[in-house]
Amino acid sequence: MRVTCPYCGERDRREFTIQGDDTSLRRPGRDAGAEAWHAHVHLRDNPAGRLREMWYHDPCGAWIVVERDTVTHAVHGSVPAREAAR
Amino acid sequence: MRYSGFRLIREGFRGNTGWTRAWRDPSPRPDYDAIIIGGGGHGLSTAYYLARNHGITNVAVLEKGYLGGGNVGRNTTIVRANYFLPGNSEFYSHSLKLWEGLERELNYNVMHSQRGHMILFHSDGQRDAAARRGNAMAAQGDDAILYDREGVRAMLPFLDYEQARFPIHGGLFHPRGGTARHDAVAWGYARGADRRGVDLIQNCEVTGIDIENGVVRGVQTTRGPIRARKVGIVVAGRSSQVAAMAGMRLPIESHVLQAFVTEGLKPVIDHVISFGMGHFYISQSDKGGLVFGGDLDFYASYAQRGNLPMVEHVMEAGMTLMPMIGRARVLRSWGGIMDMSPDGSPIIDRTHVEGLFLNCGWNYGGFKAVPASGWCMAHLMATGQPHEVAARYRLDRFATGRGLMDEEGTGAQHSLH
After folding, report:
1. Shortest Cα distance, chain B CAs vs residue A14, angstroms
2. CATH-assigned architecture of domain B24-77+182-251+343-416
3. Domain containing residue A63: CATH number
4. Which residues from B are below 8 Å from A51, CB to CB?
5. What is the pLDDT of residues A65-85, one digit of tens each?
6. What's this model's pTM, rounded to 2 decimal places?
7. Less CB within 10 Å around the terminal CB: N or C of chain A?
8. Are the beta carbons of B245 and B209 closer than 8 angstroms?
9. How far A83 CA lies from chain B's nearest CA (Å)?
């Protein structure tokens, strides 16, 4: 599996650290209730198919959002997390 | 047909022409008392114990592929009861006791081999943790022996005792741990359930769950609708998809875990050895192949195969621990879909839908749990109450934070296990 860093191009998977599902981009507000935090921390769509997830490119230090198919491992592009969070 | 030594000899003389199918291949009936979604180890054992322990035989097991085609046929076959936390401790202890009587119970040779399971430790701190775990195991009524370095060397002389990075300080030995023939466990439970009247229906994918006014009424399948008063979801890595049919979002991520087997060798590794620092564990099958595995690839996956970086890591860990295996050639590698829960412990519980039950979250430890998981799931489905050894496997522990069982002590979050 090779992953595309928006800054460095296609790189070996070993250069990345994976956080998983991009839920961290959708952090609940300070006043959100316990249910919202439970959903944020624990519950997942866990799709068999395309998934947006957080990857960290160790050499360049960028957090990126990678869209990847969990059935085929095909990578369908990536964007900087900063842009995805907008 | 009952299997016995006598029948084996007789069939030997008759050219093995007298064997019959081990189970029927029925078409689904329109109505059942209970439906189990998923014909893997846990689903089949659930069906078996529903019939055996609770007399509920009007049961169907619905499997979208073939029986035992998922993780029960893809694991590294290790059976042990060396858990530490209350909740896990009594559950796996119960499971091991069921394993010890399983062949007689099922009239099926599952090749359960209690060859002993050794966990190595590499520092004083790890020694303390191992002693504490061993005491917890003993307190539970299971067995554990703490060996020092020389004790381990006497038992496992082929490990590398000279390495500086992870020096072997000793090991925690669990004599009743071991291995079993994984496929035979699925087949034995399938045959046992079938003989008690359970319909095992293969190539039958569940496409929907019928719910009326908060009560389960049955399921939609690729072979038509089937009504049932109780439905159990026992689908491991596919739990999120099936639960979504009932409007549920689960605390589960599906990940890939790889395993490997070498060409057959003469007997060389007598036990199961866990090298935690390298995320590496190994045993030798009765056929001679070295069976070993490592850690997750750490990305979500339904591919049932992994990638080379983890292959490389596992091989390096194996070479670090026992350089002798560098001469063995790997025959096959494969992956399984692990239903990872945030705290690393499973879920056997009711759901918000009456009559709908959930069994999932086995992480990378589901095989050894097969007997007790089915035992407790059957108890839950039959009585509506959790079995006492699985009472802590609640779905709501993540929402409340009460009763989390994090064996690794790393935190109850997805990316940490």
Report:
1. 7
2. 3-Layer(bba) Sandwich (3.50)
3. 3.30.2270.10
4. 300
5. 999 999 999 999 999 999 998
6. 0.97
7. C
8. yes
9. 22
